[in-house]
Amino acid sequence: MDKKQKLITPRVVIMLLVFIVAIPLLPLLISGKWGWWEAWVYFAFSLLGFIISRTLAGRKHPDLIAERGKYLDHENPEPWDVKLAPLLGVLGAAIPITAGLDGRFGPSADFGWVIKVVALLFFLASNALGTAALMANRFFSGMVRLQSERGHHVVNSGPYNWVRHPGYLAALLTYVAIPFLLDSWWTLIPVALTCLVIVIRTRLEDDFLIKGLDGYQEYTQQVRHRLIPGIW
After folding, report:
1. How far apart are CA 120 and CA 132, in angstroms?
2. Does the N-terminal or the C-terminal CB of the chain have fewer CB atoms within 10 Å?
3. Which of the listed CATH numbers 3.40.1170.60, 1.10.150.120, 3.30.200.20, 1.20.120.1630 matches domain 3-222?
4. Domain ranges of the chain
5. pTM higher than 0.85 for the full model?
6. How confident is the model over 133-143, as pLDDT tens digits?
7. Which of 124, 188, 135, 126 is nearest to 157 (CA)?
8. 144 near 208, Cβ under 8 Å?
9. What is the CA radius of gyration of the chain?
10. How far apart (Å, rounded) are the C-alpha atoms in residues 138 and 134?
11. What tens digit of pLDDT does each residue of 12-25 get?
């Protein structure tokens, strides 16, 4: 098997264990509340959502899984994303850490069933939208870059037919749901910072694609909104 297409490497395994298993478990590990069902639901949605989305996307675009496995190890990422991508990782970890600390010493909120059901619906919508984006776009890399070696071109099918960056929208839905599922006002702070960085990254990526990817300028005339349909 070609080295570039080898999917399972020690580095990938470590990344998966950290980002897909350890980080979603942080609320439980930090709080020590192993009967905290909301935290178990958060962990289950995170883990199962990843497994299902990558399995479906991998069957359709095996090269996409290899591309995403090279996170922070590409030759031509945009310089600004070399900083923003790791920052998003740090902020993404800060969210369950804050929720775990709040659960240990608080909690600071006690949201009712209605709000928690809405949060769960956000999780479901996020998983569905993120999976659809991965399956529609074989260029859905973990780093912003021009993938000339992979025949990079504009994708306007699936969710890309009504918003230009559905993957980021899916991430926003997940992050916004976490504080309300885990009863934590404090967690809204890292969530707000994470959402701000996602908005900045969306704008920078959009500008980069307009300048560097053939046909993207025309695509922006067809699909007017970058991140949130009807708003921006």
Report:
1. 18
2. N
3. 1.20.120.1630
4. 3-222
5. yes
6. 999 999 998 88
7. 135
8. yes
9. 18
10. 7
11. 677 777 778 899 99
